[in-house]
Amino acid sequence: MEGVTSVYITKSMLSLFPKGQTGVNGVNIGNIASRLDNIQILSADEQPIIDKLRKESSSINTRNGYEELMRVREDGEKTTIYFKDGKKDKKEFVLLLDEKDEFTIISIVGDLTLQEIQGIINAEN
To answer: Within a 13 Å sphere around the CA of 101, how many CA atoms are in the beta-carbon half?
Structure first.
């Protein structure tokens, strides 16, 4: 979509991250990265494009097999984390970050536990 910044990180790229490397708050990024299939980030910062991206992401909801794990509202910003259990231990975690002047979708697919996702989220705070 025009006006949307898109970043797609493949399993091959993620496998280049050194195993055993720890990041913020002791999260073992290397071991987590080796179990990821991909990460996709979509972001927009122009209002008409933000509205389109919000509409496109509206299918990420409980009616379509996603479970809402967490919702945070603070200072006009809204963060929602969804989870969808897939085939063969593949799980999808989707983070929707809705701010006044920016909307971001982060999709993480792989064999991760909820605790590992929480560790990543807590490391960011």
So the answer is: 0
Helices assigned H by DSSP within 34-94: 47-56
- Looking up tokens 């509409």 gives 55
Domain boundaries, the chain: 5-124
Amino acid 83 reads F
Write out the two tokens for 81: 């984390």
What pTM was estimated for this model as a whole? 0.82
List the pLDDT tens digit at each of the 125 positions of the chain: 789 999 998 988 888 877 666 554 455 566 678 788 998 999 999 999 999 999 999 999 999 999 999 899 999 899 999 999 887 778 999 999 999 899 999 999 998 877 776 666 555 44
